[in-house]
Amino acid sequence: MWKAANLLLAFAVEVLALGIFAWWGWATGGTTPVRLLLAIGLPVLGAVLWGLFAAPTAKRGQVPRWTVKVLVFGLAAAALWSLGHPVLGVVFVVVVAANLAIITTQKLQP
């Protein structure tokens, strides 16, 4: 139960980060075409980077994996902050950090 709950939370924050990128892209884009490009392109870029370097099945080394995780989650938190939700950004970082710490220390990788 513990393993499944933490892995589910890990997946949820990964998907949430992509949603935050879409929200930020839509909110910061000027014209509708730019908004659409950012709202679709940023999550796709984040998903591609995640799949190549940070996913459990990625064939890359540990340094890029952690670099991409920090980059994706950090940018998502920064996006929340810039959208006027600094408390949500901090809560997001705390939840992600706690989840990653539990997964790493308990060796809960799928």
* Proportion of beta-strand residues: under 5%
Uncertain runs with pLDDT below 50, 5 residues or more? none
Inertia-based shape: globular
Please bin the fraction of helical residues.
over 70%
Number of β-strand runs: 0
With helices defined by DSSP (H or I, 4 residues minimum), what is the helix count? 4
- Roughly how many Å is the radius of gyration? 15 Å
Distance between the termini: 13 Å
Structural class: mainly alpha
Oligomer: single chain
Helix-strand pattern: HHHH
For the sheet with most strands, the description reads: none
Average pLDDT over all residues: 92
Task: Walk me through what this model shows.
The longest helix has 27 residues. Helices cover 83% and strands 0% of the residues. The relative contact order is 0.16. With 110 residues, the chain is mainly α. The two termini are 13 Å apart. It contains 4 helices and no strands.
Q: How would you briefly describe this protein structure?
A:
The protein has 110 residues and is an all-alpha fold. It is 83% helix and 0% strand.
